[in-house]
Design a protein that fits this description.
- The protein is α/β, with parallel strands linked by helices and 374 residues long.
- The protein has two domains: 233 residues, Alpha-Beta Complex (Spore Coat Polysaccharide Biosynthesis Protein SpsA, Chain A), CATH 3.90.550; 122 residues, no CATH class.
- The chain contains twelve helices and eight strands.
- An eight-stranded mixed beta sheet has the order 3-2-1-4-7-6-8-5, with helices on both faces.
- β1, α1 and β2 form a beta-alpha-beta unit.
- α10 runs antiparallel to α11 and α10 crosses α12.
- The N terminus and C terminus are likely disordered.
């Protein structure tokens, strides 16, 4: 691959690939599809001490090496989630563009060529190119609730399962916000900051397949932790953040009403107000029933799926509200912590007017926190 300092106008864009991983077996399939990739392939090992290795967290770093093909670079992550892992990866990269892939996607045949076509000729005001995410549907039945949730990635805006950014732009905005600890909203937050700074993110034509992993029946309950990140998004980007980021409205208001009805029923029963308790309980049952039906009707309607939807629909409301309240309490404190914009020096993103996008790396060079390489 030609050095970026000697590249001519007719040369294809130089790209490094960054893949954060927690050691999923699917990583191997991603890397096999990138065997002929002309740039650097950087895997960020974000496993915590002892994860999937039999090591002891109290006994020091006993992480075994990842099983990666020769030529793939492995960067030691900090075990702080995908936002931090991607930051460690792109700061280790050197190319003009950084292509982020998840460790559970499979790039389509010809992905490398399609990526070069997507990036070729993009004007300086374009900061990123988003790939298409394809989620395979079952052929012999309707999709389950989990499968429909994963299929939402096909229309998600700025999803980093396949998204390529200019490295200079990442440096200008400080990269991903590490106050988002989960694989949820950290990509939307970055996209919002980039667009607000005056750059564009365009849709490309390349594609990756995102298979649906086997998930436990209570997976929808685990996803409610994302309500904490929604609270932080609201704190950082205002009430219209969903509209600006193209995020679906969600059902939190219904969850809040369901939880309020349950609390009202319990309080009325405890104070001897039987009619009020029955009315509140009836409202709660109707709301839970509506939620369960909305999740069951488009699905396969098989007994295990129906039972899981009924049980989790009972718990979804209180759990969503609990996480949202915890997020609202934590959001002011998190917002006071130094964020990614605080590390920029030469590109002032605090102004209301759009910032002219940098055309060279020298115009947007910022101090880099050293990546932990292992």
């Amino acid at each position: 691959m030609a050095d970026s300092s000697t590249r001519g106008p007719g040369d294809p864009p130089d790209v490094d690939v960054v893949i954060p991983t927690i050691g999923r077996p699917s990583l191997r399939a991603v890397l096999e599809q990138l065997e002929s990739f002309p740039g650097r392939v950087i895997v960020v090992d974000d496993r915590r001490f002892g994860d999937d290795r039999g090591g002891d967290k109290r006994g020091g770093d006993k992480r075994v090496d990842l099983d990666v093909p020769a030529g793939v670079e492995v960067v030691r992550g900090r075990g702080r989630g995908p936002a931090a892992a991607r930051n460690d990866g792109w700061r280790h990269a050197t190319a003009t563009w950084v292509a982020f892939l998840d460790d559970d996607v499979v790039p389509a045949t010809g992905w490398e060529t399609a990526l070069q076509v997507d990036l070729g000729g993009l004007p300086p005001e374009v900061a990123g190119s988003q790939g298409r995410i394809l989620v395979p549907e079952p052929v012999d039945r309707r999709p389950t609730d989990e499968e429909r949730n994963v299929a939402g990635l096909e229309t998600a805006r700025w999803a980093t399962a396949d998204l390529t950014y200019r490295r200079a732009v990442l440096a200008a905005v400080g990269g991903f916000d590490e106050r988002f600890p989960r694989a949820y909203r950290e990509d939307a937050d970055l996209g919002l900051r980039i667009v607000r700074a005056g750059w564009q993110i365009r849709q490309g034509r390349r594609a990756v397949t995102h298979p649906v992993r086997v998930a436990p029946w209570w997976a929808s309950l685990l996803r409610q932790r994302g309500n904490r990140d929604d609270a932080l998004m609201r704190r950082l980007h205002g009430r219209r953040w969903r509209q600006l980021a193209g995020a679906p409205p969600g059902r939190f208001q219904c969850h809040a009403l369901t939880t309020a009805a349950a609390a009202s029923a319990l309080a009325a029963a405890a104070t001897g107000h039987r009619r009020a308790a029955l009315a509140s309980a009836a409202l709660w049952a109707a709301l839970v029933g509506e939620l369960a039906h909305a999740r069951i009707a488009p699905g396969p309607r098989q007994a295990p799926e129906v039972l899981a939807m009924v049980v989790t629909s009972v718990a979804l409301g209180p759990l969503a509200v609990a996480h949202r309240l915890a997020g609202e309490v934590a959001a002011p404190r998190l917002a006071r912590r130094p964020g990614p914009l605080d590390v920029t020096v030469e590109v002032d993103l605090s102004r209301r007017a759009p910032v002219a996008p940098p055309t060279t790396e020298a115009q947007s060079r910022t101090p880099r926190r050293p990546a932990r390489v292992g």
